[in-house]
């Protein structure tokens, strides 16, 4: 890996580019010396013959064509002086794609951010009733959130449904805002090595029994001991979870990864880790406020 960050590769790339430009310039120069054939003058051939009588003539390239090549080379040299292209040389303009992105983003925020910031003094509950604010929130959601939570916000495997009243960390406006600002890291440790396969299966059946699903009663009885000794620390002795740490309720019919014995065993054996990124720095407070109102409204819509 160290080979790819050494100065050698910068020199190697620069040398290839410079040699290529010099070689093309020499090629054009030599071709420009070919004489234009006058009327009645015998055309010089290159000695290559195909099919017995098809020969390659040494005719010069048209002048306009030559100048197009020269202009292309001049443009290439100018570009490499102004912009990155010669190894680690950044060009005299110091241009970078990241710098251009930041500049364009700053311009866009200066133009559009006031449209979002004017809602900051309006409560989340009021914004959730405002059609214009909800439309703006929806556009923000479709841009930044739908990739994980779905276009209808009903989630997917490993990504919570935002339209119901089951929340891992709480569904109040304050908690939703906190989640958007700081992100979340949900993690369940792996217990496969500590439990062994049989104990994992017993515990999975006890978990199934908590939500009234089909289970092996004998295994569930044995699994209760392991659950109380280990799992209750996060999910609670009654299995109703703990929103303070994002431990899900195991007694309802809402499952983030699935509710079959196989899926639950997989979670106990290998653990789970899921992360939602923090959006505060990227979106800013105005957009975060609108998104909070939109997401809050998904599960608190009076009409629904």
Question: How are the SSEs placed, and which strands pair?
Answer:
Layout: H1 7-32, E1 45-50, E2 54-57, H2 63-82, H3 97-117, H4 124-127, H5 131-144, H6 146-149, H7 173-182, E3 184-188, H8 192-195, H9 197-210, H10 217-235, H11 261-270, E4 272-276, H12 280-299
Antiparallel strand pairs: 1-2, 3-4
In words, what does this structure look like?
- There is one protein chain.
- With 304 residues, this protein is mainly alpha-helical.
- The strands form two sheets. Strands 1-2 form a two-stranded antiparallel ribbon.
- Strand 1 (45-50) and strand 2 (54-57) form a beta hairpin.
- The mean pLDDT is 90.
- The longest helix has 26 residues, at 7-32.
- Helix content is 55%, strand content 7%.
- It folds into three domains: 2-82, no CATH class; 109-183 and 277-299, Cytochrome c-like domain (Cytochrome Bc1 Complex, Chain D, domain 2), CATH 1.10.760.10; 190-271, Orthogonal Bundle (Cytochrome Bc1 Complex, Chain D, domain 2), CATH 1.10.760.
- The chain has twelve helices and four strands, in the order αββααααααβααααβα.
- The protein has helices at residues 7-32, 63-82, 97-117, 124-127, 131-144, 146-149, 173-182, 192-195, 197-210, 217-235, 261-270, 280-299; strands at 45-50, 54-57, 184-188, 272-276.
């Amino acid at each position: 890996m160290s080979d790819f960050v050494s100065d050698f590769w910068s020199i190697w790339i620069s040398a290839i580019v410079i040699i290529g430009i010099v070689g093309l310039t020499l090629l054009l120069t030599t071709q420009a010396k070919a004489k234009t054939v006058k009327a009645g003058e015998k055309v010089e051939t290159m000695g290559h013959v195909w099919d017995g009588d098809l020969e390659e003539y040494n005719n010069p390239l048209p002048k306009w064509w030559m100048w197009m090549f020269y202009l292309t080379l001049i443009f290439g040299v100018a570009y490499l002086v102004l912009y990155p292209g010669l190894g680690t040389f950044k060009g005299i303009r110091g241009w970078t794609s990241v710098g251009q992105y930041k500049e364009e983003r700053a311009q866009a925020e200066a133009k559009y951010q006031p449209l979002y910031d004017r809602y900051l003094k309006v409560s989340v509950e009021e914004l959730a009733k405002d059609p214009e604010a909800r439309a703006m929130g929806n556009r923000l959601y479709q841009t930044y959130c739908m990739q994980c939570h779905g276009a209808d916000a009903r989630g997917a495997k490993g990504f919570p449904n935002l339209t119901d009243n089951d929340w891992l960390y709480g569904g109040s406006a304050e908690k939703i805002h906190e989640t958007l600002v700081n992100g979340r890291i949900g993690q369940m440790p792996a217990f496969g090595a500590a439990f062994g396969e049989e104990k994992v299966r017993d515990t999975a059946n006890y978990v199934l029994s908590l939500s009234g699903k089909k289970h092996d009663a004998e295994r569930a009885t044995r699994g209760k001991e392991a659950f109380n000794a280990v799992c209750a620390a996060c999910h609670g002795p009654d299995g109703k979870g703990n929103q303070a740490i994002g431990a899900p309720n195991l007694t309802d019919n809402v499952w983030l990864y699935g509710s079959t014995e196989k899926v639950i065993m997989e979670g106990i054996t290998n653990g789970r880790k899921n992360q939602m990124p923090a959006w505060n720095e990227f979106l800013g407070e105005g957009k975060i406020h609108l998104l909070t109102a939109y997401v809050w409204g998904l599960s608190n819509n009076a009409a629904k």
